[in-house]
Amino acid sequence: MTSWGLESLPGHRVSARQGYVVVDVETTGFSPARGDRICEIALVSLDTGGEIVDEWHSLINPLRDTGPAHVHGITKQMVADAPVIDEVLDEVWSRIAGRVLVAHNASFDLRFLRDLPGSQWLTETLCTQKLAPEFIPHGKWTLSACCERAGIPLSDAHHALVDARAAAELLRFYLRRGVSWAEKLESAATRAPEWRPLGLPQRRALQR
């Protein structure tokens, strides 16, 4: 059994959830190694053809100040009654298991996800920022700049769900150009461990 809600379950195939899941996190800073923490997380799920099938998001109590509120708009008062990250990990991992994890500037989001219990199984990932030069005219590669050149509306940037939706639309933009990440999809579906709750205390999401 792996830690925190992930284990193999005979007769229940993770490939039933095959597809992509786009993640975005808002954080108190840049480095979990220096004590920075997630203060909002969003996940947008897509099927293998790029159709959005589900989304989920929550504010997270980082058990410290929320950092640059002038950037992400999250204050200490907003997260006072929010779950801590451990209290939503069952939800987070269940939505990621079996899917290719996608993010814009993925190294940033993965830095925080891989700091969490149970993250050692995260394998197949895509970065919409690194992929952008293959699909849109050259320029700045921020999420807002990429969306503008791809004709994707984006307002209220640095809200986790808004940014996750925008990155999901970027992924769909790429997929409509005939690309396929079949090997990554299959690998994520077959290599990711199965998930089920371990009965640890969990709480409902709290949204802005």
CATH topology: Nucleotidyltransferase, domain 5
SS strand fraction: 15-25%
Could you tell me the radius of gyration in angstroms?
17 Å
Helix content: 25-40%
- Shape descriptor reads globular
Structural class: alpha/beta
Kindly report how far apart the N and C termini lie: 35 Å
Order of helices and strands: EEEHHHEHEHHHH
Strand order of the largest sheet: 3-2-1-4-5
Helices, by number, come to 8
Total number of domains: 1
CATH architecture: 2-Layer Sandwich
- CATH C-level class is Alpha Beta
Name the average pLDDT: 88
Total number of beta strands: 5
Report the uncertain regions.
Answer: 1-16
> For this structure, what is the CATH homologous superfamily?
Ribonuclease H-like superfamily/Ribonuclease H
Largest sheet, described in full? 5 strands, mixed
Descriptive account of the structure:
The protein has a single domain, classed as Nucleotidyltransferase, domain 5, CATH 3.30.420.10. The chain contains 8 helices and 5 strands. It has helices at 69-72, 76-79, 89-96, 106-113, 128-131, 143-150, 160-175, 182-191; strands at 19-27, 38-46, 52-59, 99-103, 125-127. β4 (99-103), α4 and β5 form a beta-alpha-beta unit. Mean pLDDT is 88; it is low at 1-16. GO terms for molecular function: 3'-5' exonuclease activity; DNA binding; DNA-directed DNA polymerase activity. Keywords: Exonuclease, Hydrolase, Nuclease, Nucleotidyltransferase, Transferase. Its EC number is 2.7.7.7. This is DNA polymerase-3 subunit epsilon.
Task: Summarize it.
The protein has 208 residues and is of the alpha/beta class. The protein has helices at 69-72, 76-79, 89-96, 106-113, 128-131, 143-150, 160-175, 182-191, and strands at residues 19-27, 38-46, 52-59, 99-103, 125-127. The chain is built from 8 helices and 5 strands.
